[in-house]
Amino acid sequence: MSALPGSYEGAATTGLDDSPVEARPQVLADLPPLTAQHEAEAAEIMARYPQARSALLPMLHLVQSVQGYVSPEGVGFCARLLGLTKAEVGAVATFYTMYKRHPTGRHLVSVCTNTLCAVLGGQRIYDAVSADLGVGHDQTAADGSITLEHAECLAACDYAPVVTVDYEFYDQQDVDSAMALVAALRRGEKPLPTRGAPLTDFRGISRQLAGFSQHRDAAEHRAAVDGPSAGIPTLIGVRLAAERGEQAPPIDEAAAAEAEVGTPAPEAPTPGSTGTQRAGDATVAAATNPAEESGARQVHTDAPEPAGRQPAERGAEGTDTPPTGPGAGTNSSVEREV
Ligand code: FES
To answer: pTM, whole model, 2 decimals?
Structure first.
């Protein structure tokens, strides 16, 4: 019998991870096998990269699209096709939270409980959904409908508190709306996300992450990919700028090129006026309102150092190269004296 996570013995290791794994025979019994078709799809993924091993991440998503998690069979599948050890595959699979170590329910519900979402109600949402499903973090409801997890920042703080289902966004949730969302999912419905592509399910989104379309044809795929991705909170700064007639200062491309590290200046700098300083001068001069001018002055190379920070002394920037030769390798003068 296998001695890997998800095995029926229930406690084993994948790679470097040795945490106990809860066996769920009722889910594992339905595990579809990885077939020759999946090997062909894996070969397709591998062909996208100059080195086959670079295909490991999408291949792990492919495994999840078939079996709902990175199974022991999936670890062996990737290792065999990529010429890696199972330990190497397991080390990668256990590093990233998007790779699941237990069979996942039909949908993965992630509730952001990071700072901004938490203070706006994310923790209350998580607690309510957890109580309703009768499961905690990284656990699956008894009916197999939903795996729940609390998540760190989902990069949608402007829509806090945020819930994702299979990585699609449901913005500005509260306890009632999140509970209604979960109830709909358990009835087999697929409520439209606030933005982005329509909802599929965990195996479906895993297939997309492996680089395969879930849609019937190119037009349907395009329509999903081109779904609305930005909403009012994201665009509010743009709207306010338009109402006030503000715009970003024009880019002085010649000055920007000079300021870029490693780009040779077209002419020798005159004393007191380096290319970087001229770029700063140009940005200040181009400011069209006091706020822009203030911001440009603060990042100007001639701006005073912030309080408490001292300019680096000549030759003291960065980390010194360790000395070589006699005495090298000791940690400090104190150690040498001892
Ligand atoms: S803190 Fe929740 S999305 Fe950033």
So the answer is: 0.67
